[in-house]
Amino acid sequence: MKFENTRSFAKRLDQEDILRKYRSAFHLPKVNGKTAIYFTGNSLGLQPKSVQKLIEEELTDWAALGVEGHFHSRRPWLHYHQFSKKSLAKLVGAKPGEVVAMNQLTVNLHLMLTSFYRPTKTKYKIITEAGAFSSDQYAVESQVKQHGLNPADVVIELKPRQGEHTLRTEDILAAIKHHQNELALVLFGAVQYYTGQFFELNKITKAGHSAGAYVGFDLAHAIGNVPLQLHKHNVDFAVWCGYKYLNSGPGGMAGLFVHERHAKNKNMVRLAGWWGHDASERFQMKKGFKPMPGADGWQLSNFPVLTGAAQLASLKIFDEAGMKSLRAKSLMLTGYLEFLLKEIPHNAHYFSIITPKNPKARGCQLSLLMKKNGKKVFNAISRAGVVADWREPDVIRIAPVPLYNTFEEIFLFVKIFSDALS
Ligand SMILES: *Cc1c(COP(=O)(O)O)cnc(C)c1O
């Protein structure tokens, strides 16, 4: 596609966009009374208008039925974790039994590390990306200490080469090989939250397995953003949150993936709770934990229905729109953003884009490394009605989301940004 730097061209792309009707399925926030240009779906996705109805239905059923709602409400609460399985499985490229909605991301990461990080005298190292999201770093650090080990001896953080901002796959694979004798686990953010780099999950997983290690991914910035094939790529486990691209609401429902080949392994060490126990005898309250097969066996507590209802509303939209169409539009939106940014006169003087140029190596987000006055520029675009994201020390993250952002918004944003630079 040959892009043009005109508002009429941007409007034409919007008219031709087969997903354009979905914008009106969301509440769009306002700044100074005007609809904001909202580019932070990577931080908190917007509210689908259908969320309110689904939550109200649960409130109505609770009011009318009390405890009987577990069995007799329109979506019986007892089975609620099953209602999102198909949609989540499609989003991450899994079988329904390999995924479950539960908890929050960091909690799920701890549950997965408890099962998949079992260091021995010889195999104890963890390879991960340098500058991972703080919560992931803390989870790993505390898990390592819990095994009586020193994080400095265990955690290998891979940094980009001198003068580069993102990791090369060849360097990741080489590091895995280099540490193979001691390697226990490879853990990466599938899409790096700061740079927006989409790692090559397939190659990383293969290399990790060749080294005799487990391989897991944090999908916080990947689910609902990029196509994923966790089952096919043999990933051991993955975790995600629901409030970013999944639009499931602040602090909303998270989830996890465990590959089918671990589904029936009852010897796997895990932290257990009654909701993970064999459903057929859960209410007998007997001694001795018997995990359900698959991801369900990692559940701890009974399901939080109100946040789960919000997620169901959002997943319905993903089911309808389909990841294939969403990704196709996303590539265009982000490609158009990149094109217009490069059209800004002397752009290299003001900023550089640290997200990979290859569209296959990124999702929708572009990270702009500001070379001067970054915070001032950010404040100026915020005053002009752009909701973007500032990351210390000098990065502005822009994430146009295919479900609700438009090409015209990208055009208007770049105009505002360009004015703010000069
Ligand atoms: C957003 C995000 C988190 C947040 O963790 P919560 O447990 O949901 O608060 C963790 N890790 C990554 C990589 C994230 O992007």
What characteristics describe this protein?
422 residues; alpha/beta; Aspartate Aminotransferase, domain 1; Aspartate Aminotransferase, domain 2; seven-stranded mixed β-sheet; four-stranded antiparallel β-sheet; binds pyridoxal-5'-phosphate
Sum this structure up briefly:
With 422 residues, the chain is of the alpha/beta class. The protein contains 14 helices and 15 strands.
Please, could you describe this protein's structure?
36% of the residues lie in helices and 13% in strands. Helix 5 packs parallel to helix 6 (134-146), helix 11 (323-343) runs parallel beside helix 14 and helix 13 (374-383) crosses helix 14. It has helices at residues 7-16, 50-65, 69-72, 85-92, 105-116, 134-146, 151-154, 169-178, 201-210, 305-321, 323-343, 347-350, 374-383, 407-421, and strands spanning 30-31, 34-35, 37-38, 99-101, 125-129, 155-158, 183-189, 214-218, 237-240, 255-258, 351-353, 366-370, 386-387, 389-391, 395-398. The strands form 4 sheets. Strands 4-10-9-8-7-5-6 form a 7-stranded mixed sheet, with helices on both faces. The radius of gyration is 22 Å and the shape is globular. By secondary structure, it is α/β, with parallel strands linked by helices. The protein has 2 domains: 7-42 and 322-421, Aspartate Aminotransferase, domain 1; 55-319, Aspartate Aminotransferase, domain 2. The structure holds pyridoxal-5'-phosphate. The site of pyridoxal-5'-phosphate has 12 residues, from helix 5 and helix 6.
Task: Report the helical percentage.
Answer: 25-40%
Largest sheet: 7 strands, mixed
Overall shape: globular
* Number of structural units classed as domains: 2
Average of per-residue pLDDT values: 97
Small molecules bound in the structure, each named once: pyridoxal-5'-phosphate
Q: What is the level 1 CATH name of the largest domain?
A: Alpha Beta
Q: Tell me the span between the first and last alpha carbons.
A: 30 Å
From the alpha carbons, calculate the radius of gyration and give it in angstroms: 22 Å
CATH architecture identity of the largest domain? 3-Layer(aba) Sandwich
Low-confidence stretches: none
Query: How many H/I helical runs?
Result: 14
How many distinct beta strands?
15
Strand content: 5-15%
Structural class: alpha/beta
Query: The CATH topology of the largest domain is what?
Result: Aspartate Aminotransferase, domain 2
| CATH homologous superfamily (4th level) name of the largest domain | Type I PLP-dependent aspartate aminotransferase-like (Major domain)
